[in-house]
Amino acid sequence: MKINHDIQLSDGTLKHFLNINNLPKSYIEDIICRAEKLHGSSEITAYKGRVVASLFFEPSTRTKTTFELAAKKISADFINIDIANSSTSKGESIIDMIKTIEAMNCNMFVVRHSVPGTAHYIAESVSSNIAVINAGDGSNEHPTQAMLDMFTIKKHKGSFENLKVSIVGDILHSRVAKSLIFSLNTLGTKAINIVGPKKLIPDSYAEWKVQYFEDMDQGIENSDVIIMLRLQKERMHDALISLDSYYEEYGLNQTRMLRAKKDVIVMHPGPINRGVEIESSVADGPNSVILNQVSYGISVRMAIMSILFDNNNL
Amino acid sequence: MKINHDIQLSDGTLKHFLNINNLPKSYIEDIICRAEKLHGSSEITAYKGRVVASLFFEPSTRTKTTFELAAKKISADFINIDIANSSTSKGESIIDMIKTIEAMNCNMFVVRHSVPGTAHYIAESVSSNIAVINAGDGSNEHPTQAMLDMFTIKKHKGSFENLKVSIVGDILHSRVAKSLIFSLNTLGTKAINIVGPKKLIPDSYAEWKVQYFEDMDQGIENSDVIIMLRLQKERMHDALISLDSYYEEYGLNQTRMLRAKKDVIVMHPGPINRGVEIESSVADGPNSVILNQVSYGISVRMAIMSILFDNNNL
Amino acid sequence: MKINHDIQLSDGTLKHFLNINNLPKSYIEDIICRAEKLHGSSEITAYKGRVVASLFFEPSTRTKTTFELAAKKISADFINIDIANSSTSKGESIIDMIKTIEAMNCNMFVVRHSVPGTAHYIAESVSSNIAVINAGDGSNEHPTQAMLDMFTIKKHKGSFENLKVSIVGDILHSRVAKSLIFSLNTLGTKAINIVGPKKLIPDSYAEWKVQYFEDMDQGIENSDVIIMLRLQKERMHDALISLDSYYEEYGLNQTRMLRAKKDVIVMHPGPINRGVEIESSVADGPNSVILNQVSYGISVRMAIMSILFDNNNL
Questions:
Q1: pLDDT at C88 over 70
Q2: Can you give the pLDDT at residue C135?
Q3: Does A249 share its domain with A271?
Q4: Partner-chain contact C295 A51, CB within 8 Å
């Protein structure tokens, strides 16, 4: 086995959790397996005294709060670094800031930043006894979101080999979409469709094992899973499409739902734009697992944190 | 017994804590009784693992911090949702935000919002296994403040049946005043006086069992309890009165104190405006229980949270 | 023994931790001794239930976060008072705010404020069962920083009697420098040099047992310890010196390092300005103990908090 020292320890186990791209299948399966064990468990005390520092350079409610709750559930201390009032606002470099927090005997960083690669950059700089988790790096990846999405599909569909999964929306700018496609591919999903206006599809999609549909009705035909992406309204201008036309062409409504399988599950990373990318009755309907995703997010983040603590002997 | 499903469970016990208006006397007494038991107790571990999410859409130091301390004292986790950086700032509706946090396995919401009825609106929307506490909804009610005020009066005066209580200030805009009047009435207070400039008294006061005094000396005559309200300086314009005249006519000073009973207690929800609605020597004097109120606020909030946890089997 | 009631209890032990100036040597040694015991210890449970309130009127990452981590390590609850959204923003006085938080059964305040003397002012106002720690008061003192610096020197150099310590930079505006000079003097440091542009040296330095050097090469000649101060760029205008000239004349670079002893340690309170007051290769080099200082800061703050809890029987 070739070791990728960016993310792996010398025994081949996962050191950091930075991306889904190139992440071996067994690692993804291990995380899902651990999350299943932890889901609904009572408090874990094995990680008492461990310190997790959260560094959110971009605002977040659900990702940050679920990380905080996940840390508490495994008895780790969770320290919110107040970026707006932090020393980076006094001109300190990110690395100096990281080294300083590291010197406070932190064991783990959870990082969100608008610049792609920031979590990797930090992972390269920290001491060997620190683990880094990427909580979203610009338009690159959002790997813990993808993991909770895989957990959701596993919970509701059992396995990936026979599934058709449709991802709908602004694929071009979505870090969620990228991490999703990588993980679905690794887990052997039978068919992955991407759906959206041509202008919101990256040229590079041809490299991925996906099929592109400009027409939504075709793109979700017979799907087992539909994953709607959040529309960034400010990006619609680039896409040369109005909000109304977008909803007409790509909004997931009751009529369109009939195209997919009867037991299709509808997913969304949130926050949802009702009446923009999804009809309220679908978001709140029996096929929607959108709120389950949030709940699973805690178990999946407990799993990732505890695996990294274990692997690094923290 | 008629069940009010807005706030009561089918066994008649309290589900949410949203308002004092129409709240049965026995509930108020139960809260005071529980608060007395919890006051000064060592840490309670019975609620370990419960998650309380605070949603303060308006700033607050004392209410939010006492809720946080009360939650810690009963071993519950307390999660501060950072509203300014939250997904509502990305256009998410309050209900979608609430549903998302609920999906994080929260057991209780503590809500403050400038729009009257927000806590009720949220209580109607949450799942059956969530309890909601109103920490102030616009000019409507501030029921936990009223409860700590009742606890304060109980502690210092024993019972309500023979008391004269005077509430002084801007009754019109004060949610504290409304909750106070409801709770004092329910507990059978002998006399409730409201005192303030005519322009700051609601027309509806006639419906309440209170007596209005425009003249402060008459309004606090022989009182057992004087509750001063915080003056919102920006509202004085509406009242057609200058700050100086207000203090002259309605400020509680040493001379005026002689009108009340010798053992009168002086209360204020804080923060106080010294020299605006109250003289410093009175605020800091032997009759003042203003800081006791703050301390009792922790016990009362411990009581309300623990009762709701118990009733909902959380 | 004459008791200084500002900071001492009637049995002569330390009540508050407000300044290094006039602090008896035995107190400083006791803190270092306690910090050595606590450094690297597992969690201390003796202070469970104690409540520490942090009042940072100025932003801070490292001081505030290390206080928070130190409090957690001795099992105390740590409450962040959100100053920007607090009642002082509604016009409440600091003392009323303090009295209110005190009424929430807090046992300790950690205060940073831009006005010199604020922590003292608060210490004079709180009840007898509250301890106050100064986390920086304007240009006056930063005593916990000085204590962690003394701990750092003790760890790396053993004792003070034979040491030459050079403090370089803007002595005039630096609260760190003042607390450093007081503590180094009290601990009997052989030689204390202060180095910087004349305009950034206070006239009062003659009262301290220090020697002033305008020339840096002379000022760090044969030093055992070099403490670089953070340059406030906005102050350079007053100093009639450009950033480039400053770095040329006072920046600590590899060449200058040769002037000092071979085993000199380089310290800095952080955040560092690379290429302004210190060369990157020196900041990251083998003589630098800058990140150790951060780590020691937790142990020293654990020591100070636990000593004050003990002395006050909290």
A1: no
A2: 98
A3: yes
A4: no
Q: Please enumerate in sequence order all residues whose Cβ is within 8 A of that of A46, keeping only pairs 6 or more positions apart, or say none.
A: A74, A75, A306
Residue A46 in tokens: 């094995």
* Residue numbers of the domain that contains A245: 143-293
Please give the ipTM for the structure prediction. 0.90
Would you put residue C156 in left (φ > 0), alpha (ψ -120 to 50) or beta?
A: alpha
Q: Are residues B65 and B183 in the same domain?
A: no
- What is the pTM for the complete model shown? 0.92
Residue A9 forms part of a structural domain: no
- Of the candidates C77, C89, C100, the beta carbon closest to that of B62 is on C100
Question: Are residues A239 and A228 part of one domain?
Answer: yes
Same domain, yes or no, for A40 and A70? yes
Q: Are residues C162 and C61 in the same domain?
A: no
Average pLDDT score over chain A: 93
Which residues, at least 6 apart from C105, have a Cβ–Cβ distance to it below 8 Å? B69, B295, B298, C51
- Min CA distance, B96 vs chain A (Å)? 8
Residue C181 lies in a domain: yes
C294-309 CB burial, b ≥16 within 10 A, e <16: bbbbbbbbbbbbbbbb
| Domain of residue C55, CATH code | 3.40.50.1370
Instruction: Give residue B4's pLDDT.
Output: 73
Q: Are residues C29 and C88 in the same domain?
A: yes
Structure tokens at B237: 């314009």
d(CA B18, CA B141) in angstroms, rounded, equals: 8
Nearest one of A177, A293, A193, A180 to A230, comparing CA atoms? A177
Residue C90, pLDDT score:
64
Lowest mean pLDDT among A69-73, A78-82, C190-194: A78-82
The span from the CA of B80 to the CA of B53, in Å, is 6
Cβ contact B105–A273 (<8 Å): no
What value does the mean pLDDT of chain C take? 92
Residue of A43, A59, A62 lying closest to B100 (CB–CB): A62
Residues B131 and B150 in one domain: no
DSSP conformational letter for C263: T
